[in-house]
Amino acid sequence: MIAKPKRAVFGAVKSERFDEISKYRRIDITRENFGTAINDRNLYRTLLDISLHHPHSVVRHEASFLLGKLNLTRAIPYLISIVKFDKSIVAKHEAAESLGKLGENSDLAYEFLKEMTNLKRKVYEDDVYHADVQATAELAITEIEEKRKLKSN
Asked: Residue 99: how many CA atoms within 13 Å on its side-chain side?
């Protein structure tokens, strides 16, 4: 019998995969458990899937945090999607913060955050303005620009 996909934050995900990532708790999303995701494709994919599909927003938040902390720049397009489409302000905020951590060395992250800060009263894809997410993007841009300035001196 073919398992029916389950609906997650970002579309349908195979039932087995959804069940697998749903087992993770907030306290499981640590550098000790995922620190080798830099070199381990399966571990990276699991962390990414948790940030996109976990049913609990706080766990998605923690996974987004760790993507930034581990400097996983290949996750930038996914973090941008979280900011744009996730229904949770907590998850959006942390994805924006992680983009800020990654933006020092990524024009894609920097330009996205810059675009966010230039749009006043931005309405996101979920049709809600998120002042806290906007403030996070503004702070991230300031920090990126300060780091880039220090590097150039």
From this structure: 34
Q: What is the tens place of the pLDDT at every residue in 60-73?
A: 999 999 999 999 99
Q: Which residues are registered as beta bridge partners of 11?
A: 8
Rounded alpha-carbon distances, angstroms, from residue 77 to 5, 62, 72: 23, 17, 11
Q: How far is 129 from 124, CA to CA, in rounded Å?
A: 6
Greatest pairwise CA separation for the chain in angstroms = 62
Q: What would the pLDDT profile of 82-105 be if each residue is shown by its tens digit?
A: 988 888 889 999 999 999 999 988
Measured CA to CA, the distance from residue 4 to residue 24 in angstroms comes to 21
**H or E stretch at 12:** strand 11-13
Q: pTM, whole model, 2 decimals?
A: 0.85
